[in-house]
């Protein structure tokens, strides 16, 4: 796929302009977005991604468009799973609702930075070493097994990492929020606010999720332009999605299981691709393995859509049945005292 330099500049410029506008608005007016505001923003960003994918189809063909849509759907699903962890973080640190949007925005910016770094590193590694596909594939299969072993999504899935524990233990911190500020001066000493710890938690979580998402996208396309745009579009509108879905995120109890199936599929796809470009001397004498099947992108896209669709329907059905079957405790009124007892 040939992408002219000016197309790169225009694409990156437009996306950065959208992000800058978002930062400017949120930075000046931290608030909890309304349902209408959230729905409008999500519709805009999803529509923008669809239009971009159709543009890829027109100018570069259906193969590359299919790669973009498959990568975007996979990254979007991983980002939604990331939102579930964000929800737990906000709850545990008791972040006021009107400040959560700012925290989420900073978390998403950090995610963009980390993914940008990993995209560049991954592209350089793939260009130099074809055996990297074996590593990516094995890592995704391992991640899939780990996700599947966790079962349904719940609050116990989140464990504070070493960076968060160090920050909470070593940094001079106050228990009170001071708007969206990260530090505050009290009695002549500068203290970090709980918002700073929240940002650290979101940032380290983003870093861990980037380790999963980049091998996954490279399993669907090796075009850096598509890898970058799929990741950016997957992160756009996540703040609004967080507030629009709210507790519905907790009802996607099978999301991790569905993602484990998708990641395992992409991992196998990567290993098969690695066999086709094999250069390792101890595997087939360093020659390509011709009998290994190549999985076409249309099959990958269909598999991802069907898997995520089944996961969503099953999650909502299970959570609805759980709520419906939850026993209601009858309140039995205490018997009134008889006149004799009152006397």
From TrEMBL:
GO terms for cellular component: membrane. It comes from the Bacteria. It is a multi-pass membrane protein. It holds the Pfam family TerC. Keywords: Membrane, Transmembrane, Transmembrane helix. Coiled coil: none annotated. The chain crosses the membrane at residues 6-27, 39-59, 65-90, 102-125, 131-149, 191-218, 224-245, 252-275, 295-317. It is found in: Membrane. InterPro entries: Integral_membrane_TerC, Integral_membrane_TerC_rswitch. Its main location: membrane. Belongs to the TerC family. This is Tellurite resistance protein TerC. The lineage of its organism: Bacteria, Bacillati, Actinomycetota, Actinomycetes, Propionibacteriales.
